[in-house]
Specification:
534 residues, alpha/beta, eight-stranded mixed sheet, 20 strands, binds ligand NA7
């Protein structure tokens, strides 16, 4: 018999857990289907050594429960993955969420039934359930992609993608380890593995601009201060573009003297977290000349930290300016390349030909390894949708609808897919955000919509084609002026390992979380303009 619910949520990460909590308050019978055997989403899967926040811990946790805020102490300014996973398990226990979550249940199909005004979902192993509402909480960076290098399957040593890391600890002591990929993940894993590996080879295709994290433990006095100032911390996040505690400086880099610039850049470089990206001069992400000033500063830092000038040069991006791709935060990353047991393999000079049974062969030679770590990234934002066969009205496939780039209303709804709400979906501000801050906004907006429907006896909601076109147009307009829209990265939907993802389609929302929140609130206040109810 097919199980019946009022609402189905796919995913028990940060957004799915909170959505469940809120829908229960509305009295809806809600079921969460989760592919893993535990809660936590990103923090469940990404167990690789070195995985940690780039957001200040106390700005990242849920803000909806004062009791939870009072009870939980973060031990470090930027918490490591095991602590974050413990936190999310604590939340699941505290609010008794597990009883409504079906673990080991990956949803393979979701189909809208117009006659019954309901969604039917099916797990990979054939279990089915129906519900009036379907809420995807599947995460923007949750579909790991292996490199499209021939021979991956023949490697006889240990091979791990960072996003599918084993639950048991992996020992690198004395081993010959390769890391492919130097994004935010690669940087975290490289600096950690370099501590114990016998030999480490980093296979770099494109370097990124990395900035110091400056993590440290939280002492008792600071802990008390954090607890006392949660309202201010969250208020600050609310006001900033990406809901980080770092607010962009109102000045333009080009309006101040080189000396003022230098002092400011140095100050940001010495401070913890994303300040150098999010709290920098407002024009560095918009104006190429302004961007060149910070890029030059960062290049100098690499030269100062890497002893071999040739290596420093290879580690310096030439194809994009600082901040136009995701900035990895690091702790001693550049110094790793001063270690004798670490080698940087520049794939521009010597591309990988194949993975062999014993290691990796480039055009130069074959190197043997005991372990290969694939830090090769994700099929971002739309990838998690693509691997579910989502069918809307008339059997329309979501994957086909989005083939030329996503089209959404507020990044939360899709015309032709009634009663589907996409938390942290494409073109949603949550994709470019200190994510739990925007997740809470998404979940609360969706909850209010469902409450409105319950109160008004509505059973079906669908965004209009006009509202969807207008939002999509707005999303592209806000992205156009940003320098990153001219650069290949996962922000722009580029993934060299996934067929069909070589053309730039902006996946995020660049108008900023405050503007996004305002627009969502306006839509709600207008009685949900642009959405048709039945
Ligand atoms: P990213 O940022 O997409 O980085 C993936 C890295 O892997 C990047 O350096 C890629 O080089 C490299 N890569 C991918 N495929 C290949 C192949 N086939 N050969 C060689 N190198 C390859 O993923 P991350 O996991 O680091 O970060 C994703 C987000 O997760 C991050 O932004 C955080 O928000 C959390 P490329 O640059 O494409 O040349």
């Amino acid at each position: 018999m097919t199980a019946q619910y009022d609402a189905i949520i796919i995913g028990a990460g940060i957004s799915g857990m909170y959505q469940l909590y809120r829908l229960r308050e509305l009295g809806l019978r809600t079921r969460v289907f989760e592919a893993g055997d535990g809660v936590g989403g990103t923090w469940y899967w990404n167990r690789y050594p070195g995985a940690r926040f780039d957001s200040e811990s106390y700005s990242y946790g849920y803000s909806f429960s004062n009791e939870l805020l009072d009870e939980w102490d973060w031990s470090e300014h930027f918490s490591a993955q095991p602590e974050t996973l413990r936190y999310l398990n604590y939340v699941a226990d505290k609010f008794d969420l597990r009883c409504d979550i079906e673990f080991d249940s990956r949803i393979a199909r979701a189909e809208w039934n117009e006659n019954r005004t309901q969604w039917r979902v099916e797990t990979e192993d054939g279990r089915a359930a129906t519900a009036r509402f379907l809420i995807t909480a599947i995460g923007p960076i949750s579909t790991p992609t292996m490199p499209n290098i021939p021979g991956v399957q023949y490697f006889e040593g240990e091979g791990y993608h960072t996003g599918l890391w084993p639950h048991e600890p992996v020992d690198f002591r004395g081993k010959r380890v390769a890391v492919i990929g130097t994004g935010a993940t690669g940087v975290q894993v490289i600096q950690e593995v370099a501590k114990t590996a016998g030999r480490l080879a980093v296979f770099q295709r494109r370097p990124n601009w990395c900035a110091p994290l400056h993590n440290r433990p939280i002492d008792a006095q600071t802990q008390r201060k954090i607890h006392a100032s949660y309202p201010e911390i969250f208020a600050r996040c609310r006001e900033s573009h990406g809901c980080f505690i770092h607010k962009a400086d109102p000045r333009n880099a080009l309006d101040v003297s080189p000396e003022v610039r230098e002092t400011f850049y140095q100050k940001l470089y010495d401070e913890p977290g994303f300040g150098i990206w999010m709290g920098n001069f407002r024009d560095i992400l918009i104006d190429e000349r302004a961007n060149a000033t910070i890029s030059e500063f960062m290049a100098r830092k690499i030269r100062e930290r890497v002893m071999d000038p040739r290596l420093a040069d290879k580690l310096t991006p030439k194809d994009h300016g600082f901040g136009t791709r995701r900035v990895p935060l690091e702790t001693g990353y550049y110094e790793v390349y001063n270690q004798e047991n670490v080698e940087l393999v520049d794939l521009n000079e010597t591309p990988i030909e194949c993975i062999t049974r014993g290691g990796i062969r480039t055009t130069e030679k074959e190197r043997e390894f005991d372990v290969i770590i694939y830090a090769t990234g994700f099929d971002a934002v739309t990838g998690a949708f693509d691997r579910i066969d989502v069918r809307g009205t008339g059997g329309m496939a979501l994957k086909e609808k989005w083939a030329g780039g996503p089209k959404t209303h507020l990044g939360l709804q899709v015309q032709g897919f009634p009663n589907l709400l996409t938390l942290v979906g494409p073109h949603n501000a949550a994709t470019f955000c200190n994510i739990p801050r925007c997740i809470e906004q998404n979940v609360e907006w969706v909850t209010a919509l469902m409450q409105f429907m319950l109160e008004h006896g509505r059973t079906r909601v669908e965004a209009s084609a006009e509202a969807e076109a207008a939002w999509t147009e707005h999303v592209y307009q806000t992205a156009e002026r940003m320098l990153f829209s001219k650069i290949d990265s996962w922000f722009m939907g580029i993934n060299s390992n996934v067929p069909g993802k070589q053309t730039r389609h902006f996946l995020l929302y660049a108008g900023g979380a405050p503007a996004y929140r305002e627009k969502c609130d306006e839509v709600a206040a207008s009685g949900y303009r642009g959405m048709a109810f039945e």
